[in-house]
Amino acid sequence: MIVVYHQNNRIVKVVSTHNELIPFDMDSSVAAVLMKLAHQFPEELIVWCHQLLENSLNIEKIATLFHHNKMMLSYTETNTRFLGNGIGFVEESPFIKVNNKCTYPTWLMSSEVGVIHASVLKLIGSTIKADANFDYFLNSVAKVGMILGLLCYSEPQLLLKNAIHPIFQKANLFVLFRFVKQHYKKRWIVLLFLNLLVFEKRFPLLPLLYSLFFKSRKKIALNLDIIPVQSTLTVIDKKTIDVIIPTIGRKPYLHDVLCDLAQQTHLPVHVIIIEQNPQPGSISELDFLTNETWPFIIKHTFTHQAGACNARNLAFSQVESEWVFLNDDDNRFGERLVETVLSKIQQFGISVLTTAYLQKNEPQRYGIINQSGIFGSGNSFVKACCLTTVSFDMALEFGYGEDIDFGVQLRNKGFDIIYFPEIRILHLKAPMGGFRIKVKQLWDAEIVQPKPSATIMYVFFKHYTQQQLLGYKLVLFIKLLKKQSIYNYFVFLKEYQKKWEKSQYWASKL
Question: I need a labelling partner for 35 at 20 to 30 A (CA). Which of 132, 190, 230, 402 fits?
């Protein structure tokens, strides 16, 4: 392990784990020195730490936290990161609003303290300029790396408690526009300009023009798969797994799912089925649960209360195994699904895994194992202990956004969601069951209907920054405006604002 102490974008000293001083070029930037150290010590962890935090560096914990080589960790307890809140105008992901109290997935790195493996730094750093501004360099490495499969986290355990954090200068608009130009599609610098103009009454024309002189780093071609991953964590003990399936009116499809589960090379212990039928006096139609023999225990609950959120929450209370497969009643998958998933979970040392979830003949767009910005309640595997303090939000029942909300709840408890594209579940998208009833929403009687849906607005209120919400508002406005006549602009703007305010109103009621 090599530790680099720095201050004011300059190296103060470089030491090894044994406190041996390592010579360095005092005229080089921090980023440039890190790159040289990565080549000099290709098998070592490279740690950076602000000089004021030297006595607070939890150096004994780093080896445990950094449990495989394809990771990047950093930490600052401040809520405002180097790029400022303005980055929320251009990114709608859950990686922007960072929870500083737990291990949280984010590419927003800090120069206060952090660690990366030399092999990763050599690969990514070879294509990225060693910027004089160390914070810019770190955020660029993480932003590029996360897309390529680097797992990036804010990790509070890098520092001992009660550390005194130095005060850092935030990036100005010139730096922010440059970063957006180099790491996002070109249209986002225009959208950033419009957001600042509309919502902050600023006219950052010079920063926008300045950003045009920088080349994009978005299409950097690197293969991080050459870096082996084998976690030192033990996340699997008993290897037991329960399967949760909410179902409503899809008897033949559910039977096929059970047949796929029965063919697994690693069988589940329990299959927890929550059958719903809101019709009064109705009874279960799933006769095959008892008429046929299954190689697992089926826990069957019948309820007149419809809704997938309620069904899954009911199922959580019945889980007994170490792991849980959140399944759907119209999925199909191969016989090695569970076996493969458990193998990957152990290899990466993770608590939540989500698979590719494609419909028939749907092309697969993403082919890299990475930190997922979404969560699939029909195609994910979760360690059972993670479910004790989370649940599907009943305010989102029969609406939209319950998967997003549940995923952010997991992240806020310190459980990242890793996507594995080579593990595939086919989603048949079966027709809805014949006894579903139309759910009347609170706002259905409104003359002005909320836009976006009140449940989506609720999720934004709950989990995203104000800038992310406003950025979404502008993008939605532009999408809807494309369908309008230019002569109808001011009428449309007035109506859109009314629909937005109605959405906010009902979201607050949820």
Answer: 230
Give residue-wise pLDDT tens across range 130-182.
999 999 999 999 999 999 999 999 999 999 987 778 877 889 999 999 999 99
Residue closest to 235 by CA, chosen among 133, 322, 163: 322
Residue 344 in tokens: 């990957």
Q: What angle do CA 507, 313, 342 make, to 5 degrees?
A: 115
Task: Say which DSSP state 57 is in.
Answer: B
Lowest mean pLDDT among 23-32, 191-200, 243-252, 439-448: 439-448
Calculate the average pLDDT of the chain.
94
Cβ–Cβ under 8 Å, residues 242 and 212: no
SS (H, E, C) 166-195: CCCCCCCHHHHHHHHHHHCCCHHHHHHHHH
Look at strands 379-383 and 323-327 and give their pairing: antiparallel
- Please report the pLDDT score of residue 495 as a whole number: 94
Say which amino acid occupies 426.
L
- Our CA angle for 109, 114, 118, nearest 5°, is 105
Residue 499 pLDDT > 90, yes or no?
yes
291 compared with 484, residue with greater pLDDT: 291
From residue 96, alpha-carbon distances to 85, 89, 160, 165, 215 in Å are 9, 10, 24, 21, 24
DSSP 395: G
Q: Is the dihedral of CA 243, 249, 251, 257 positive or negative?
A: negative
Q: pTM (2 decimals)?
A: 0.94
pLDDT band, very low/low/confident/very high, at 78 (cuts 50, 70, 90)? confident
CB neighbours (10 Å) of residue 330?
Answer: 20
Helices (H), 268-307: 288-291
Distance in angstroms (rounded) separating the CA atoms of residues 78 and 317: 37
Per the CB < 8 A criterion, the answer to whether 427 and 357 are in contact is yes
